[in-house]
Amino acid sequence: MRKNSRRDRPELPSGRRSAEAHDADTFRRGFVSLTNLALSGVQITASAIDVSTEKVLFSIDDHLSVPTAGLGKVLLLIEVAARLTQRDASAHGLLERTVVDSAAEMGLWQHLQVPTLPVADLAVLVGATSDNLATNVLLRRVGIDAVRARGEALGLSRTFLLDTVRDHRGPDDAPHFSVGSARELATLFRNLAEGAVVDVATSQQVLAWLGLGADLSMVSSAFGLDPLTHLHSDHGLLLVNKTGSGPGIRSEAGVLRGPRASVAYAVTMRFNDAELTGRLAVLDGMRTLGTDILEYVY
After folding, report:
1. How far apart are CA 168 and CA 206, in angstroms?
2. Are 91 and 54 in contact (CB under 8 A)?
3. What CA–CA distance (Å, rounded) separates 64 from 180?
4. Positive or negative CA dihedral for 133, 139, 144, 147?
5. Which of 116, 142, 238, 289 is the most buried (most CB within 10 A)?
6. Which of 61, 15, 76 has the alpha carbon at shortest distance from 244?
7. Quick check: pTM over 0.85?
8. What is the CATH number for 59?
9. 117-166 confidence digits (pLDDT tens)
10. Where is this region: Disordered (predicted)?
11. Exposed, middle or buried, 24 (CB in 10 Å: 0-12/13-18/19+)?
């Protein structure tokens, strides 16, 4: 498919599909579906990369840095994992939750009686349920500056964790929890899968935490996996992903291994969330792209 020109079609996102995919029609459905969403006013950034060859299979405005909601917690997990594998003393011990750390909605710790947990257990909660309270307690321990420095060391220039999780953002707060580009996020997950983020041990630890993730409601809804248990290969498929969700934002990045190939991907959609139909259309578009990814790897 010819890359759309913004000069000719200013309402469409710029995008491309690889002509060398396994099937000439691979990613056609996703491209059409996401283009239709863009015509309805949805802002889309997306990238899909073959893990082995690093070939870009699919992209839509993947250079743009956009709000990614809780997806930025991956950067925190990388910093925590690096400290654990490097036997940094700050990565050990019990951490206590405080009123200052409180953030409602996502997560389980706010519903549990236990007031303190080990650092590694908090990382499990973040990986499994995107736990907001656990995120803030870990950020208090390692510091946002350290997370930013780690991201810069990994070569990230458009993907950042900006702030703690907040129930309300005031004029003096960062406007978003995290931002990122689809290209960088897909590449980051590709590098995690290849053991190239910090080192093999760090990459494997992050993958182990993210492998517990229970949110398969977006792109990964097309893969047919059990949301509560997909740590091991199922019908030849193995998934590791992280999602981000907020008002008018749905974001997911991950890597799917299959019998034929492996794909690292990232998709973020910003939309008018005033009506349920708009949200459902976005989720349907993400699932369609997931179907194309599944077809490529299977």
Report:
1. 29
2. no
3. 8
4. negative
5. 289
6. 76
7. yes
8. 3.40.710.10
9. 999 999 999 999 999 999 999 999 999 999 999 999 999 999 999 999 99
10. 1-21
11. exposed
**Domain assignment of residue 1, yes or no:** no
Rounded distance, CA 258 to CA 131, Å? 29
In-domain check, residue 9: no
Instruction: Rounding to the nearest 10 degrees, give the CA dihedral for residues 32, 38, 42, 44.
Output: 70
Rounded Cα gap, residues 40 and 269, in angstroms: 12
Cβ atoms of residues 61 and 44 within 8 Å:
yes
Q: Contact 48/132 with Cβ under 8 angstroms? A: no
Question: How many Å apart are CA 241 and CA 207, to the nearest integer?
Answer: 9
Classify residue 7: in a domain, yes or no: no
CA dihedral 154, 59, 49, 31 (to 10 degrees): 150
- pLDDT (0 to 100) of residue 288: 96
Would 4 be classed as within a structural domain?
no
DSSP state of 111: G
Give the CB-side neighbour count of residue 282, counting CA atoms within 13 A.
Answer: 27
- Please state the domain count of the chain: 1
Question: What does the block give as tokens for 164?
Answer: 């703690």
Question: How many Cβ atoms sit within 10 Å of the Cβ of residue 7?
Answer: 6
**How many C-beta neighbours within 10 Å does residue 116 have?**
12
Q: Which two tokens stand for residue 281?
A: 């259309």
Domain that includes residue 216, residue range: 15-297
Q: Is the pLDDT of residue 254 over 50?
A: yes
Extract the tokens encoding 97.
């939750």
Question: Could you tell me how far CA 21 lies from the centroid of its own chain?
Answer: 24
Pairing of strands 160-161, 262-270: unpaired
What is the model's pLDDT at position 19?
34
Place of tokens 């907001």: 132
Residues 225-253, buried b or exposed e (16+ Cβ, 10 A)?
beeeebeeeeeebbbbbbbbbbebbbbbb
